[in-house]
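Hi, here's the filled form for the chain we discussed.

Project: internal
Contact: R.S.
Residues: 389
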Amino acid sequence: MAGPTPHRSALLLLLVALGLIGLVVPAGAASAETRWLCHPGLPDDPCRGDQTTTAVRADGSAVVRRPRVPRRAGVDCFYVYPTSSEQPTPNARRRSEASVEAVARQQAQRFSTVCRTFAPLYRQRTLAALAAEKAFTEEQRGDFYRLAYVDVLRAWRAYLAEVGPERQFVLVGHSQGSRLLRKLIAEEIDPRRSMRQRLVSAVLPGADVVVRRGRDRGGDFEHLRLCRSSRQLHCVMAWSAYGETPPDDSRFGKPPTDDAASPGLDLPVGRRLEVACTNPASLAANRRVQVRTVVRSERLPGLLGLLQLQLYGGPPPSAETPWLVPADRYTARCARTNGTHVLRVRPVGDAQQLNPAPDDTWGLHIADVNLVLGDVLHVVRRQVARLRP
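And the returned structure, exactly as it came back:
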């Protein structure tokens, strides 16, 4: 077992130690041209790569597998990466960097077995701005989010112009990326039947998608429902993972009563809402079943790498292949606990207990995607298989 969870200033202290907080100045104006982190036309694309995987069996033996990557994927994935920029300004400049590329490899690259991926570089609210969030007014924090959304919206429209009116797509995000996609879907997709029909599904972990209490829609989206079956199309998957009961001041799982968590995005708030949780391993019944964890065999750089060390209580699992199905197994089930609605994760047998990072209010946020990545891909593959040719 790893040591105790650090104090809640851990994120700020880690950034200071890494020299990532200095003179904080606004990011400069950017041109209207969309810049891509991942795009089918890019020769060096972190969303594509070798999918060779070491799968460790329950008895400790291992087998190497080589998942198929289609030459011509029938659908696209539009991916918006989470908060990962280590630039010292509140909003990142639209340039690639090691931390962003590593996160894209970790979260989005595996989707190349299903789709071709488009991922815009955007002026996201940076790790520095997140760590020092109390130093900014709500209006300033709203400006950070608004600037990020401008780039994502512009990229979305550029994508549509490039692929034409028929191409179907999956939306994939995490954390800040999922928050921005919530707004994008609400404004650009949900109100339009033709766009809803093109959406295979939306994968939006770590961002508190909301629905009307006791219902599968309302809240963020009037028409799109939560996914309750791998046979269901035009639906949304959303969850936030916690290994322990979320604390009273949990960052995720509680329905928002104001827009403090997402200023500037005009996302729904109110007591009639609840946070959505869909269990990717058991969409219909939400049974506590073993999830399919798939991870990259590489350490994340910088701050995210330190948080990864905290999550595992030491070096993360790795193998000689780019991908790994680790020996430790976990089960998961959506649960309502201490006023939250979250995906409760438990170790199987003597598997390692995962630690919250950077503190207990965040839960297992850094692992939201990879803990259940195999299950998510299984669902998306079955959804794609149901599309009309």
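Let me know if anything looks off before we file it.
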